[in-house]
Amino acid sequence: MKVFINPTWTKKDKADGGIRRVSEAQWKYLPQFGIEPVLNIHEADLIATHGTSKVSIAGKPIVNHNHGAYWDRYDWPDWAHEANKQVVDAMSQAVAHTAPSEWVANALRRGMLVYPEVVHHGVDPDEWTPPEDDWGQYVLWNKARADLVSDPDDLQHLASLMPEVSFKTTIGNATPNVDVIGVMPIENMKGWIQHAGLYLCTARETFGIGTLEAMACGVPVVGWDWGGQQEIIRHGETGFLAKPYDYEALVEGVRWAIENRKTLSENAREDVLARWTWEPRIFQYAELYKRTLEWWEEPDVKVSVIVTTHNLNHYLGDCLDSVAS
């Protein structure tokens, strides 16, 4: 079975983010489960689209992998609403859907009446390993963009309450205990993650691949108790989750995690090896693709059309002819 994956990256990483990591994992692991990714869409039996990506080809089943949306509790500018429209358009092309977490899936079920299969992301623990030398004495906030959900102000406020603790961030304002290291490609970012004392996860993640990468490196995670991290972090075992915007609790969590770092580090790495490798996730994708193609190729009804006819009976014949064509 051949699958066209859109988007597929062929050039060097430029801090492209989580969707790229999922696409690359699909290319790497799908062949183990009888799926051949292809670059030519016309060779494909099925098309897998990520996020807002769409294709303009008929006669092939599409599976859309949703990666979240811009939630309406925030006052987003126009570009975010346009992105949401593109997400909906991409999903409407598909005959099957996935979501990266239960909380994203629940939003889609409520808002779009689609029923995605939840496929969590994974991490390659052979690529993401604890450092050979000692860990650094800093808390890391690692995001490639700043917006209403991914807000470095959380880091800045926490740092102001803990002047004795060193923080490093990709985005924000430098202060006596905050060092801004900048957004960078993943191969450059890896060393900062591996050597972090703690990984600060305050963004309302749709899942959190960066969270898994930190855990694979034996870095405990501290953050807000919401979003994807609720489905990843085992509170008190692999990290600490505080009620959103309860900074006193977050300060307590950072201090507790530093004090108990050795145990938390070992637990985080073990949890990744037990629950968060890529192979089980890609197996889910492969099985979904096979089921979808099997359904598509069955000689059965694929679309039901409801026609309202009250006071419109004069147009019914033309309407049914249009549907049939």
Automatic annotation (TrEMBL):
InterPro entries: Glyco_trans_1 (IPR001296). Residues 176-270 form the Glycosyl transferase family domain. GO terms for molecular function: glycosyltransferase activity. PANTHER family: GLYCOSYLTRANSFERASE. This is Glycosyl transferase family 1 domain-containing protein. It comes from marine sediment metagenome. The lineage of its organism: unclassified sequences, metagenomes, ecological metagenomes.
